[in-house]
């Protein structure tokens, strides 16, 4: 029988109309293909015994002749229909922000949640990932996606004028066959019927440009007539791709986990200031993960003149950062001011972190007033860590500022032992703060990877711009100042010699003194995951006086553009040691509290068998931390006669608060000065001793609660303060409080504080996130009382 009624039809009811594939009416199949699309003709399974021969009709396996019972339609093998594939379009992208942020170590960025822009306007969460590491996204389609018939192409674009040749325009089909360390993607799964969700894993190369990328999704289908239909979806939000210290192939890869936690993820830190004998720290809120900070940092890169094609190179990026953080050349972030007059701006000691500075800069689009070296360094640390570059603030005590490029700190005195100020352009800063950044230097000889020094404080021009570095610490240590960038200047900061030239009675010049161990007394930074200080001087220089250290100096001087006027092999015998039979010892002070009296003492001894007459001048001078004199506040002269062989005669003066308080600079630093001339031999002795006056520490008290029982969302009160050490009131007083995850920078004005009374404030803080948090507080007033402090708490869920 044909395809008429059969026993099966009778038992199961009429069967749906279908193609006759038994060879009885093949033309019907062709006729129906015009009405319902093109069929791909299939065959039934196992209904025909394998031993039963089957003919074929039109290339189709034939059914056995004779009547055959029909099966229910639901039990038939599906008939594949060759028909036009419908195009589908991506209508949205789920960036799976929570999942990807955790995997890419970007979940601390507040921008990955709903956040506030610079003008406090709510912003949608950003998609922030790190280069060289896969991420997963879901493509939401407006129809059913068939991976056998549909293709997907992703296009990433970077910058204002993306180009394939600059790797700022990248387009590729989603495929399972990806090249290693390159752009690529593969489909992980397809779910859903009417509107499919296509889960895609995307790979970015470890040298990918850092910043904001746009993402377009093309869905592609090939038509029967051979044409291709492409439907594009342009996602309105950006993809933010950062450096990846976790990726072994990234140039900024940092292998040690605890180092990454400190130099990339730590939001607060300590910047060291003071003097070599009294090192103290300033707590600093880097705040690299706060709301708008990433947006601001990327805007800095957009505006620093760096071509988009160079935005994957950390060497070029950190060099630009060292320029854009200062203002002189490019309308950068901070205006430097060391004058002591801060009218129209903020006193540098008032800042407690980078966030308030970057907020003001982004809102006003104008340089922020004012900063000094530790402020520049704090902002650089914020910008680098925010972009994913490991970074730390570094302090050099007794830091040379060499202005003429001869790697020697030169000073000149007349025959009476007075400095000739107009000739002394070099200076010795009590301390100077810059930054180290971690990266490979593939264009340098082997052995120069790792820490690189950069400096944003505008001191000297480099390639016509106020910037410095990056310069390999290994190159600095070895004296290889010819390697880029700015080796001579940075080497001189840590390892130059100070040479004092003095005019003689006959108008000739002689070397009066060479200080070989004065410059670069100590280089330090915050210790990894610890509140303690770490001495990193050995990374910058060999031990003073060793053959290696002198050899490095020789190499450095020989490669400077301005060759040193001194023999580079100079030793102590070049000093003018004739007729020096009087020995001098200047007593050095370790700690003096601001507001107290202090003495300046000199011990002299006569080593000769003859009487000696000494003209002695002792004095105290208020100085800026840069070594520049501000005010001579005390001087006394003595005429002393030493008997033959007389030993350890003491000369001293007392300096009172009335002498110095009204003249102190922000850092409360002073210099004791001594000048002696021996009448009989014309021996000259000049010595200086830098020291700073200490201020009180902040005291903390947790009011009405337990410091060890703090929870997210539960407010707690903190009281802090100190006692005024000055013999006069503190006026126009203010506390500044901030702490990531606890408190945006807030100012609290308080009353004037009389002598001996307490300046204090109570604040209420509400933790936003769990974990260890640091509360940073600075105090500002019109008087010299630079007080600040930090306290740590642990917040439970």
From TrEMBL:
Checking SMART domains in the record gives: TGc (SM00460)
Q: Which residues bind Ca(2+)?
A: 495, 497, 544, 549
Q: Where is the active site?
A: 373, 432, 455
Q: Which InterPro entries match?
A: Ig-like_fold, Ig_E-set, Papain-like_cys_pep_sf, Transglutaminase, Transglutaminase-like, Transglutaminase-like_sf, Transglutaminase_animal, Transglutaminase_AS
Query: Which Enzyme Commission number(s) are listed?
Result: 2.3.2.13
Q: What is this protein called?
A: protein-glutamine gamma-glutamyltransferase
Report biased composition (Polar residues) as residue ranges.
Answer: 49-60
In the record, the note on similarity to other proteins reads: Belongs to the transglutaminase superfamily. Transglutaminase family.
What start and end residues bound the annotated signal peptide?
none
Residue ranges of domain Transglutaminase-like in the record: 365-458
